[in-house]
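ok trying this again, last paste got cut off
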Amino acid sequence: MDDVVTDAPPPSRFSPDDLDNFAAPLPQPTPILVVSPNPSPAPRLLVVLISPTSLALLPSPPPPLHASLLLPDLPLNAIPAHRTRAAARSLISGLQPEEVLVLDAVRSGAYRGRLSADELVEGKLETGAARRRGGVGAAKGVAALAPPGSVMDGLGAAVMTECEIRGKAASMVVTWPAAARPSDFGVMRRVAAELGVDLKAAARVSGRAGLGALYT
């Protein structure tokens, strides 16, 4: 009769790769918000530029940065989906802005590819606090995005979620096509006026991947 205590156990039916699926994920390093040596008070309005069209508003050379958001586990490229929530939390909790304006681009896939390449789209999503105020900054003259649905993701959506949780007034204005000129959209013209940017110098962009930029 076999000794069930001392006999070698049968080989596992799982491969080592399968067993790794049951291991606890490694903790992700916390994003680091580095504020300038002489920080100003909490900004009244934080503008987050994400879309190529909005990034074209940046003057050359750009003004001095008020703060930098560092993710130690990532190289200098776009923030992946699994890190956007942590980045948004660090950004909003660290700067504590009164209002937030996010400028992002609609993804054609969110509308099942039914957006025309020649059709200009400009719409906004807002937190409850922003709706009660009638909008945020340059977004006040923008109509609600229709249909709203779950058409946005990435860092912009994570910033909006964080602002909703914290009860902050935040508006996200999205545009299409992604490579349109800033002058094609009313919100971009108003933001350019507030930043003192000459729209004639903001040329059409080609959908380049951007890090995003933060200005107060």
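PB: full thing came through this time. Confidence is low (pLDDT under 50) at residues 204-211.
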